[in-house]
Specification:
This protein is α+β, with helices and mostly antiparallel strands. About 25% of the residues lie in helices and about 25% in strands.
Length: about 290
């Protein structure tokens, strides 16, 4: 860590101006959209990382109840409800007020987009343009992202059916999630599992956190990929369903930062590390200045 910053923190600590530890959370849209992340970092009074965690919660596409004819896929018209501090605040219906509704909006012959579904005089309506006010765009507001993460943690995301202006609440996201758990980092998630050629999401998450905690000020944007042989020590607290011995790749493309091997292989390593680093900086700022 920067020596001047350490000295600054030590002086402030001696004066009693710094808390023993400070925690900050950075909320973000993850994996090029469709997921909402939370990077949580606690910093000690000497600037060291006391703890760090990454959550990555499934967006609607990962948990909305399948509504196709065969019940095995999403089709146009699926609707979910999400707590949102900016949404429908003047509406008198408690099933609508303070909630954002997203509809699976599929253009003919094209991809589906989770669009804002807005209540009007006689019913709910999709936006005029398919990609207007979509889930990823709206979640770029960190206040909305924080509300989404809080709702996911508290299991308050739900599937709904709409009849005119009547909202009928269905199953919770935890009951219809397609990957075992809403948080991709949770040990019970089966998203991106460990295979013969991949260490999977959760062991990647572990490698990212371990490297970040030891190197919080590294230049993650300058990371490069190199072929490296890596080993996985099985840990059911990290991935409850993975058999670490199943990973048998002779080598893998692993991120390296300033010649230090991170052990992480997934494509979003740099993004996750930079979000953690931002949370780290936020914690230090909160430690030094009370906003």
């Amino acid at each position: 860590m920067n020596r001047k910053l350490i000295a600054f923190l030590v002086v402030f600590a001696a004066m009693g101006s710094i808390a023993f530890a400070q925690t900050a959370t950075k909320y973000f849209v993850a994996h090029q959209g469709g997921y909402i992340g939370a990077a949580v970092v606690t910093v000690g009074k000497s600037g060291e990382v006391v703890s760090a965690s990454l959550e990555e919660w499934q967006g609607p596409g990962g948990w909305a109840e399948y509504n196709s004819t065969d019940g095995k896929a999403l089709a146009d018209g699926a609707v979910v409800r999400v707590p949102d501090p900016f949404a429908n605040v003047a509406n008198k219906d408690p099933e609508i007020k303070g909630y954002m509704f997203y509809v699976y909006n599929q253009a003919a012959g094209g991809p589906g987009v989770w669009s804002q579904f807005t209540p009007g005089a006689k019913g709910f309506a999709k936006p005029t343009r398919q990609y207007e006010r979509d889930f990823e765009g709206l979640m770029s507001n960190p206040i909305r992202a924080e509300a989404y993460v809080k709702a996911a943690r508290e299991d308050k995301l739900v599937n709904v059916k709409i009849d005119g202006l009547k909202v009928m609440v269905g199953k919770k996201a935890s009951e219809t999630v397609h990957y075992g758990h809403m948080d991709k980092a949770n040990k019970n998630s089966v998203y991106m599992p460990l295979t013969a050629n991949s260490i999977g999401y959760r062991y990647n998450n572990l490698a990212t956190l371990d490297f970040f905690k030891a190197n919080p000020r590294a230049d993650f944007s300058a990371a490069t990929l190199q072929k490296v042989k890596i080993a996985v020590a099985e840990n059911k607290a990290v991935d409850s369903t993975a058999n670490a011995a199943a990973y048998v790749a002779a080598d893998d493309m692993v991120y390296v930062v300033a010649d230090a091997v991170t052990g992480a292989t997934y494509s979003d390593f740099q993004h996750y590390a930079l979000e953690l680093q931002t949370a780290y900086k936020m914690a230090i700022a909160d430690m030094l200045f009370q906003f």
